[in-house]
Amino acid sequence: MMGGTPIFVLKEGTERESGKGAQIKNIAAAKAIADAVRTTLGPKGMDKMLVDSMGDVIITNDGVTILKEVDVEHPAAKMVIEVAKTQDEQCGDGTTTAVIFAGELLKLSETLIEKNVHPTLITEGYRLAADKAVDVLKDMSLEVGIDDDENLRNIALTSMTGKSAGDMKDILADVVVKAVKSVAEKTNDGYKVDIDNIKVEKKQGGSVKETSLIEGILVDKERVHENMPTSVEAPKIALINAAFEVKKTEVDAKIQITDPSQFQKFLENEENILREMAEKVSNAGVNVVFCQKGIDDLAQHFLAKRGVYAVRRVKKSDMEKLAKATGAKIVSNLDDLSAEDLGSSGNVKEEKIGGDDMTFVTGCTNAKAVSILIRGASEHVIDEVERGMHDALSTVGVAIEDGLMTAGGGAASVEIARELRTFAIQTGGREQFAIEAFASALEVVPRTLAENAGLDPINTIIAINKAHAEGKKFHGINVYTGVVEDMRVLNVLEPLRVGTQAIMAASETANLILRIDDIIKSKGGGGGMPPGMPPGGMPPGMGGMDY
Questions:
Q1: What is the pLDDT of residue 314?
Q2: How confident is the model at residue 264 (pLDDT cuts 50, 70, 90)?
Q3: ∠460-461-464 over CA atoms, to 5°?
Q4: CATH of 217-366, one of 3.30.450.40, 3.20.20.10, 3.50.7.10, 3.10.250.10
Q5: What is the mean pLDDT of residues 457-471?
Q6: Is the pLDDT of residue 101 over 90?
Q7: Mean pLDDT of all residues in the chain?
Q8: Distance of CA 469 to the CA centre of its chain
Q9: 155-178 b/e with 16+ CB inside 10 Å = b?
Q10: Do 227 and 304 contact (CB within 8 A), yes or no?
């Protein structure tokens, strides 16, 4: 201010909001995102139908899928969606839990802000509470090993319960556990599981119960020539990242032919080059070729004459999985191909699945890459089963890596909340209010589970707390009966990392949003939260949510 005249340093049309108004708007946006996925939580959660501008439909109750598909403009809402994405990358499951927990933390912080508790004190309290919560969760964790098939299966079942895959979850859980154990690699510290080594292939037709594990690699390609064998026993497999074609010149070149015999020689030379390529493959003892690039028609003929089964245009990711499954090395130059570069398996054959010919590489010894073939009546069913299986594969993999699991059904949340209330009294100061709010926010999990199952949420929280006060720290809500029971007996289990990641990601994001007290939006930027937005829900038409 100079002489009472305000000086504007921002470009004309720039909008600015600061203080409590900015904080309240950010909190409202985060709450709207949390409320969008709230009803999908738990075994009794409902599905969402998402329709994009092209008319494509997705039906799912997977939190991260819903939030990825929804077009959001508000920056605070985007930050909450990042929580779901991070949770999915780290654990594969618990995305909805993380988002509704972040929303609840911000909702309760709003009350504290209105009571003039400074946001810095709230964030400090949340940080202390998050560290304590993780410690409590680790203390009540249970051990699980790679040979503990029953508990690994229960973890897979818990992950798939409530999803479309849940109807056939008993069959799918067995497939999941076998697949993850196949790709688990022993390290000095335990085991390492890379879910990318499990190739998931979808084919419409049949029933979900026909979903199967293939101890090898399934390639969605057919042999390139009809005269090639349809099945090769005990194959010698070559993985080639070079084209079976006549190499083009690096620079523009012109060949001038003045005599018909010269043209014939030119064609014969091309033919000889392709013949030599086929001979190099055959001389190395190869009878199955997976080529990442093209195979010329004439080269196909020469390979077929030598009884070689060949597939072309194989994806790079499939080539890498084939290498891990068969032990073959990917060769970029045919001249370097030798017997040492070849892989082996029990059988390579072409089979027709759902009207399409596919190549099965099976019987691999100690394969570190396997395939799952998902079947289903329609595209929407298969896609949702795939999402459910991805979650289950990730959670089982995480459980094997960490060797620890916790009880579900809201048991862990209530136990942590009880410990935090004691911790809050011991901490004292104004941070105490934030720690107590953190404890109350954790109870959103059993409360939402009860709401989605049509149970009374207040009675549910009271009943679980009563059981925990009696020392029954693994008791949670059975959403099918409404009775508080031991989650270990009901086999409702999840990896420790799902809980710890959800707590840390949600609290860190809530703290980041709470520390924002000034929003400066440049001209032509995203919209702000309009007045009159319905509380606790998205505006009509979730696509393109312009707040």
A1: 92
A2: low
A3: 85
A4: 3.50.7.10
A5: 93
A6: yes
A7: 85
A8: 37
A9: bbbbbbbbbbbbebbebbbebbbb
A10: yes
- CA 237 to the chain's CA centroid: 32
Q: List Cα–Cα distances, 338 to 69, 286, 343, 346, in angstroms.
A: 48, 9, 11, 20
CB burial of 482-505 (b: ≥16 within 10 Å; e: otherwise) equals eebbbbbebebbbbbbbbbbbbbb
Q: What's the DSSP call for residue 440?
A: H
Cα 500 from chain centroid (whole Å): 17
Contact 239, 331 (CB under 8 A): yes
Phi, psi of 125 (to 5 degrees): -65, -40
DSSP class of residue 322?
Answer: H
Helix (H, G, I), strand (E, B) or coil at 541: coil
Provide the residue type at 32 as one letter: A
Q: Same topology for domains 15-142+407-520 and 217-366, yes or no?
A: no
Domain 15-142+407-520: state its class: mainly alpha
Report residue 10's pLDDT band, with 50, 70 and 90 as the boundaries: low
pLDDT at 2 exceeding the cut of 80:
no
Q: What is the pLDDT, as a whole number, of residue 544? A: 40
> What is the pLDDT, as a whole number, of residue 364?
82
On the question of pLDDT at 467 being above 90, the answer is yes
Question: Hey, what are 259's tokens?
Answer: 């005599």
Catalytic residues: 62, 95-96, 391
**Statement: residue 528 has pLDDT above 50:** no
Distance CA 493, CA 422 (A): 26
| Type of residue numbered 98 | A
> For the residues 379-383, what does the mean pLDDT come to?
84
Q: Is 96 exposed, middle or buried (0-12, 13-18, 19+ CB in 10 A)?
A: buried
DSSP 19: T
Q: Who's near 367: CB < 8 A, 6+ residues apart?
A: 182, 215, 216, 324, 325, 326
Residue recorded with tokens 């993999």: 397
Which pLDDT does position 531 carry in this prediction? 43
Domain residue spans of the chain: 15-142+407-520, 145-215+373-402, 217-366
Return the residue matching tokens 């190739």.
199
Query: What Rg, from alpha-carbon coordinates, does the chain have?
Result: 29
Give the residues across from 485 on adjacent strands.
476
pLDDT tens, residue by residue, 198-255: 988 888 887 888 888 888 888 989 999 999 999 999 899 999 998 888 776 556 667 6
Nearest C-alpha neighbor of 290 from the set 274, 304, 311 = 311
Distance separating alpha carbons of residues 131 and 427, to the nearest angstrom: 13
pLDDT in the model for residue 337: 87
Q: Which of 166, 165, 187 lies closest to 383, judged by CA? A: 165
pTM of the model: 0.80
Record: fold of 145-215+373-402: GROEL; domain 2 (3.30.260)
Tokens of 87: 């949770």
pLDDT tens track for 355-373: 788 999 988 877 788 899 9
Give the Å distances, CA to CA, from 150 to 145, 372, 411: 10, 21, 21
Short-list 421, 459, 425, CA closest to 441: 421
